Amino acid sequence: MSQLRVHELTKHFPTPGEPLVILRGVELELDSGQSAAVLGPSGSGKSTLLHILGTLDAPSSGTVELDGQDPFQLPEPQLAQFRYRHIGFVFQDHYLLPQLTVLENVLVPVLSQGPAAPEHADRARMLLERVGLGHRLEHRPAEISGGERQRAAIARALIAQPALLLADEPTGNLDRTTARSVARLLLELQEQEGYMLLVVTHSLELAQLLQRRYQLDQGRLVPVE
Ligand code: ADP
Ligand code: MG
User: Fold this and answer.
1) Which residues span the domain enclosing 164?
2) pLDDT at residue 135 above 80?
3) Is residue 113 part of a domain?
4) Which of 72, 93, 178, 183 is deepest in the core (most CB within 10 A)?
5) Phi, psi (rounded to 5 degrees) for 143
6) What's the mean pLDDT when you consider all of the chain?
7) Given a cut of 90, is residue 225 above it in pLDDT?
8) CATH of the domain at 40
9) Is residue 37 classed as helix, strand or coil in its secondary structure?
10) What distance in angstroms lies between residue 216's CA and the mean position of ligand 2's atoms?
11) Is 42 in the pocket of ligand 1 (CB under 6 A)?
12) Which atom of ligand 1 sits closest to the CA of residue 51?
C-alpha cells in the first residue's frame, strides 16, 4: 500500500528583490489507487508542485513523504534511485529520443540504473502491448503519431512500477479524441498497476475522470467540484 503525504509545503524562488512565493502551504494525501487532478491558471505553480513531488526540485519548507520516506533527506545518488523506483513522469511533450526505437525508449530509465535484464525487456513489451503499441516496437518516434508517442511515454513512465505517476498536461498537445483515449489509458493502467495518479491539466473533461479535483489558488491546493 503506497502513500503520499504532503504537509505545509512551500516554495519560493529568489529574485533580486522580494522572493517569488509560489507555494504557500500545500497539503495533500494520496493512497494507492487514488487519483487527483490539479487545475489552476497558467503560472499558479502547478508544474512547480509536480516537480517537487517528483523530487526534481526541493521544497523551501514543509515535508513530502512517499512510502514512508522523505526523499529530500536522501543524498543525491540515493535520491536518483528513489526517483527511479517510486516515481513515473509524463510530460506534455513526450521527450522520446528520436534515434531510439519505441521499445528502447521505454527501457531508457532502466538503462540509467545499469544494464537491462531480460525481465525489463519483457515488461517493456508488455506495457507497450497494453498501451496499444505492441505492433510498433521497432518504430522510431518520428514514425508514429502524436497520440502513439504519448502512449509510449506512458509506458516508459511505468517501466519501474512506480508508486506515484505524475502527469503534467499529458494531453495538452493532443486533439480532443486522442486526448480522451490517452486520459482513459492512464486510468485503465491505474486499475492494473495500482499507482497513485496526480494529473495537472487544463482539461475539465480529463479532470472529471479523476476521483478528486483541486485548484492551486494563491499557493494552496483547494478542493473544487
Ligand atoms: P504553472 O505550471 O501553473 O503554469 P509554474 O509552476 O511553471 O506554473 O510557475 C509558477 C511561477 O513560478 C511562474 O511565475 C514562474 O515564472 C515561476 N517559476 C517557476 N520556476 C522558476 C524558477 N526556477 N525560478 C524562478 N521562477 C520560477
Ligand atoms: Mg506548467
Assistant:
1) 32-60+69-223
2) yes
3) yes
4) 183
5) -95, 5
6) 96
7) no
8) 3.40.50.300
9) strand
10) 12
11) yes
12) 6
